[in-house]
Automatic annotation (TrEMBL):
PANTHER family: GLYCOSYLTRANSFERASE, UDP-GLCNAC:BETAGAL BETA-1,3-N-ACETYLGLUCOSAMINYLTRANSFERASE-LIKE PROTEIN 1. InterPro entries: Glyco_trans_2-like, Nucleotide-diphossugar_trans. Transmembrane segments: none annotated. Its EC number is 2.4.-.-. Residues 14-180 form the Glycosyltransferase 2-like domain. GO terms for molecular function: glycosyltransferase activity. It comes from Streptomyces racemochromogenes. This is Glycosyltransferase family 2 protein. Keywords: Glycosyltransferase, Transferase. The keyword Membrane does not apply. It is an enzyme of class 2 (transferase).
């Protein structure tokens, strides 16, 4: 640990920026690092043998900014680990901060991190990170609720859930700590190098200080002609790389702390596995290869790791282990248990003793369902048009578990995908379904009013909304889930509007099978809608 008593006004941070063929964006990243002020002693940009104009951009910037040092690799490393290691080796400041060439550091990030590191003598300091979806500009918090601003974690084993944060870029590292423990990234083309680096950091048991400030903006460009390595999930190689990175990280953590190793396994089941299952797609070759690779890997998990996973993840893993090939109802996993929030889609099968099981073909026990609080039940709520500006909802029961809570009303809420508070719709009384299968209600679906509220909140052009249903029960619980669109609900509509002239409404199904909405009020909104569709089509053709 550095013995420096410097304040944040003293140059004490080396920001390592890595770049490969990113001439159009690297300047913004480097500028955001230089703009941190005097606390940043140097910005070390490592050009990983780019073949575009990245080297020229960096050289021009270094001529204007003495704090910028440029390292030109003569051979491309194939990954992110080697150039970051080059940056660590070249750093001369007490602290190191990492930045990718297509991301930015928000103002004051380095200052906030250094102040906390010095105050608490912490080898590692972490702050908030957001994933900024571009071009929309929607910010999605990374691992919300994982950290408490102002806390100091004496040992990572005291907070094993910290293994969920696998990023290296939202943290400040004491360089002497990295040197003492010989902590480096995997070299070469090693995808998900963050997993391994972070596991090595946590295994070294540093004190970790937490700041509430936003310290990193992770730009996500899903429509880019060349997506980032972590988003390039079109073939089995990406998943294989992630599994291998997790295997390495899990062993590193388990060797240092059984608690951390166990938490890493549970995290894989509840996060990595479900995320990739949501994106499994329809290609039979990919599905079969993914299923085999995943099943083989899960076979090595300890029973205690499976038992400790949340019910949705535990059931998913056991279905995978029970079937050598993707089952006929694999869509129930993809758009049900893998969804967020999770849903257990019908049909609801029972075993010989009447116990809940996954299906008649795969009688995997749904253990723990009886003990889940009503608020945590993986409910399914179906939605279809009812006419007259309303939707008909059917709330499915779960083996009598929801009936025990005595559902009374259902209420819709609309969450702006650009961020912000939900728009709530007044609750509507639920009635038992005529066929005895759950409860039903007709709920007003006033799209013009929703578009007007979006405009009032500053949403211009195309508006995007997620739709949720909350079921209020007599026992005080209020489980919330997404809607499963049925029948003709997904038909695009051009609605006359006294306010906008025309309102273009496009209900659509998300990757996890949930209902979402795009609203385009007026001619300007409709134009944005058309432009976005063209952009998505171009991006698909370019891949």
């Amino acid at each position: 640990m550095s013995s420096s008593n410097s304040s944040s006004d003293t140059p004490s941070v080396s920001v390592v920026v890595i770049a490969y063929n990113d001439a159009g964006l690297v300047g913004e990243a480097v500028s955001s690092a230089l703009a941190q002020g005097p606390v940043v002693a140097e910005v070390i940009a490592v050009d990983d043998a780019s073949s575009d104009g990245t080297a020229r951009v960096l050289e021009e910037l270094s001529a204007a900014h003495p704090r910028l040092k440029v390292i030109h690799r003569t051979q491309n490393s194939g990954g992110c680990g080697t150039p970051r290691n080059d940056g660590i080796a070249a750093a001369t400041s007490p602290y190191v901060l990492f930045l990718d060439s297509d991301d930015v550091l928000p103002p004051g990030a380095a200052d906030a991190l250094v102040r906390a590191a010095e105050e608490h003598r912490a080898p590692v300091t972490v702050g908030a990170c957001v994933r900024r979806e571009l071009p929309e500009g929607r910010d999605v918090p990374w691992m919300p609720g994982l950290y408490t601003p102002g806390e100091v974690v004496e040992r990572p084993a005291d907070r094993p859930e910290l293994v969920r944060d696998t990023l290296c870029v939202n943290k400040l590292y004491d360089r002497s700590f990295l040197e003492e423990h010989k902590i480096r990234f995997p070299d070469g083309r090693f995808v998900y190098e963050d997993f391994v680096f972070t596991s090595r950091v946590l295994a070294a048991a540093p004190r970790i200080a937490v700041v509430g400030d936003l310290v990193y903006v992770w730009h996500v460009r899903r429509r880019a002609a060349q997506v980032s390595i972590s988003l390039d999930r079109k073939d089995i190689g990406n998943w294989s790389s992630r599994v291998e990175a997790h295997r390495t990280a899990s062993r590193t953590l388990a060797d240092a702390s059984p608690e951390l190793g166990h938490a890493c396994q549970v995290k894989f089941l509840d996060y990595d596995l479900r995320m990739y299952l949501r994106e499994l797609g329809k290609d039979p070759g990919y599905r079969a290869a993914w299923w085999t690779l995943t099943r083989d890997y899960l076979a090595g998990f300890a029973a205690a790791d499976l038992d400790a996973a949340p019910a949705r993840a535990r059931w998913t893993a056991r279905v995978l282990l029970a079937s050598k090939t993707p089952p006929a109802d694999v869509e129930r996993l993809m758009t049900g248990l893998a969804a967020e929030p999770a849903r257990l889609l019908p049909p609801y099968a029972c075993g010989p003793a009447g116990e809940p099981v996954w299906s008649e073909e795969l009688p995997v026990p749904l253990d723990g369902l009886a003990d889940l609080p009503a608020a945590d039940l993986p409910l399914t709520v179906d939605a279809k048009p009812a006419g007259g500006g309303a939707v008909r909802l059917r709330v499915r029961d779960l083996y009598g578990r929801l009936a025990q809570a005595r559902p009374r009303t259902v209420r819709l809420s609309f969450l702006p995908r650009a961020g912000g508070d939900p728009v709530l719709v007044r609750p509507v009384e639920l009635r038992p379904a005529a066929d005895g299968d759950g409860w039903t209600a007709e709920v007003p679906f006033r799209l013009a009013a929703l578009a007007a509220e979006g405009r009032r909140r500053g949403l211009r052009g195309l508006q995007a909304w997620d739709v949720r249903a909350g079921v209020d029960c007599a026992d005080g619980s209020s489980p919330v889930t997404s809607l499963r669109p049925l029948d003709g609900l997904l038909r695009r509509r051009a609605l006359p509007s006294s306010r906008y002239g025309v309102l273009l409404a496009q209900p659509y199904r998300t990757a996890s099978g949930a209902l979402a909405l795009r609203l385009a009020p007026g001619a300007g909104g409709a134009l944005t809608f058309v432009r976005n569709r063209l952009d998505r089509a171009r991006a698909r053709r370019s891949r």
